[in-house]
Amino acid sequence: MTEHPRRLLLRVATKLMAMIALLFFASILLLNLRCSGDPERPLSTQTEQIQANSQQALQRISWSEGNVLVLYRDSKQLAQLEATNPRLSDPDSQRVQQPAGLPAHRARRASHLVLFDRGGEMACPLEWLPPGHRLPPHQPWPGGFREICQNTWYDAAGRAYGGSSTRNIPIPAHHWQGQDLLILGRDGDNHDPQP
Questions:
Q1: What DSSP designation does 88 have?
Q2: Which among 35, 125, 144, 168 has the fewest CB atoms less than 10 Å away?
């Protein structure tokens, strides 16, 4: 007689544990489910006057979606970026967040690269090292970025050199208006539709 209540208790406990596990997995699925009718939050837009030039190559911009860098590149750097470089992990930028249709130099305006100020697996800030710098492991150094946490190296297009990181630096949605006005947060020249 004592086995019967134990069996019943064991059966109830097993069913209860199975139901808790099902509810746990169902809650995970429901929390990660996105309805197609609910659009993602649009990026905030910001307009910036760009002053990066041959004397001051790098400009940092604080944006609500993440800090951004604008790098001025001269014709010599652009020619080096067009050449094939077997040291790059992803020369065609296939595995990175960036606007569609960018050329190999990864910029809408070739002379000015716009990218997020973060790189590597830890998303650490970047440091610009100009051409000829002696610190980088790839010599002669044509100019590029270093991610400061894990010492990951990138070329002047934000493409990762082989090694610890395989992802290039992400590029935000942006477009240019006139000669030196950068609009962050929108990818094209079209204005947002009015409701």
A1: B
A2: 35
